[in-house]
Amino acid sequence: MPGRLANKVAIITGAASGIGFEASVLFAKEGAKVVCADLNEAGVQKTVEKITAAIGPNLAIGVKVDISKEDQVKHLVDTAVSQFGRLDIMFNNAGIMHPEDDNALNTEQRIWDLTMDINVKGVWYGCKYAILAMRKSGGGSIINTASFVAIMGAATPQLAYTASKGAVLAMTRELAMVHARENIRFNSLCPGPLRTPLLMDFLNTEEKKQRRLVHVPQGRFGEAIEQANAALFLASDESSYITGTDFRVDGGLASAYVTPEGEPTGPVPKNFAETI
Ligand code: NAD
């Protein structure tokens, strides 16, 4: 049975872990040829091995890339085209949330710059070279991972991360308009809090986890596969009339004013920064 991404070629960044890993396996299952890209070379090879073992050979390749380096992103896109002949889907998903990212007073410039270089410039470079390749394929779908913090004010200070994800939303919207007539669609994926290493390393006690869950109407962390399923929809032709959206996959978080129990979702104690 042909899959939902039959005959398509996809690049997925951040493919060694979390959302990127799940999306790599899912996209391959649905018939795409997948270029799994990540800074973590050993991790990305494991993703390729998983695809080979679970689905079959010659469906995926791994590429080591630092998305904050323009020449490396160009090389990534060139590799996809030379190996698989075209590019239809670019999932700019890799990102960092630095442990030293803090509020306006405490965030150091090097943390700000590093976060912007990866989370914003990395997405820009991914879009830039994907556009050039997709023009030759007659169009495509570009999905950029943002976050719920781009939409909602978070009282947990992580200023550079929040600003970077806001930039991803704004950039994605503009690109969607500029390239709409070229049949290149752009959408942002806005995950809620997920049970992936990125967030669980940060919310490293049960108390911190429960504190965060107060905000989520569905009362649980999201799973990476739930983001991958949404990315699959945005990548496939099923979403052919959808471009420029902030696609929220967040357990209802960004729609919440009170919890289902009627409690305010955001009770912020005075010592909030210490409690989370
Ligand atoms: P993760 O940490 O599990 O995976 C991120 C991957 O990106 C890692 O494999 C890492 O090696 C890779 N990476 C980091 N810097 C890179 C670089 N410079 N070049 C190439 N690869 C690099 O995280 P995840 O939870 O799967 O997050 C994926 C995306 O989702 C990120 O953009 C993140 O900001 C976003 N997001 C996550 C959550 C969450 O709760 N986990 C919530 C909202 C948004």
UniProtKB/TrEMBL annotation:
GO terms for molecular function: oxidoreductase activity. SUPFAM superfamilies: NAD(P)-binding Rossmann-fold domains. The keyword Metal-binding does not apply. Keywords: Oxidoreductase. The keyword Transmembrane helix does not apply. PANTHER family: 3-OXOACYL-(ACYL-CARRIER-PROTEIN) REDUCTASE (AFU_ORTHOLOGUE AFUA_6G11210), SHORT-CHAIN DEHYDROGENASE_REDUCTASE FAMILY PROTEIN. Belongs to the short-chain dehydrogenases/reductases (SDR) family. This is Short-chain dehydrogenase. It comes from Syncephalastrum racemosum.
